[in-house]
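Researcher: Please predict.
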Amino acid sequence: MTLELVNLRVCVEDREVIKGVSLRVERGEVHVVVGPNGSGKSTLLSAIMGLRKVKVCGGSIIFEGRDITDMPSYERAKLGIALAHQNPPEIKGVRLLDVMNAMAKKYGCSDCTSLTKTLLVDSFLSRNLFVGFSGGEKKRAELFLLMLQNPELALLDEPDSGVDVESIGMLARAIESLRNRGTRIILVTHTGAIMEKLSRINKVHVLIDGRIVYSDSPDVVLPVIFKLGFKKGLEVLVGGV
């Protein structure tokens, strides 16, 4: 019961952005992808979700033993793959409450009340979806909607970007809840702020120029990368192997 990327190459407008990424995520694991701006982190998540703005130009995506490389995104969603966007779009005329009720009806929701309290979304359920939301409100609402899908694989694109300290704590608790359900999680982060709040991260992958150049436990990777930066930090990490 895994997600496996096999030498995955991804193109955007005929430019190769992901250049041969391989990784394997087991049930209940949390994998974090870090890297400088423009390294391909969001593109990698978009390819796994099957968004049309990117194109797989080599390699394969295997989910629970099934090759989904050419499967449309809506079919992947039916398999339990869900993406929380870095910048969700504002949707006027549709309340967060309306979407919550529709998703609860479709997927079932035995803990909706608990979820609204964990992420404190009850105060803005009646507002139009993401319209005028603060950074923290957007991220909490986006993760809330993802969790309503009871995903088998959660793709989280910079959940800690533009978020205050209190919201980061809420998001981390919700992510812990996802992991405890057995959800596989790939989390992209630029700041790394949320990683300090997570009790267990299975592996950190450093993505540079579309390639995973180093993977190890967070205790090994993070202190070096965040102290020295990616270039010098990788020289230290690779030199220590």
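Model: The mean pLDDT is 92.
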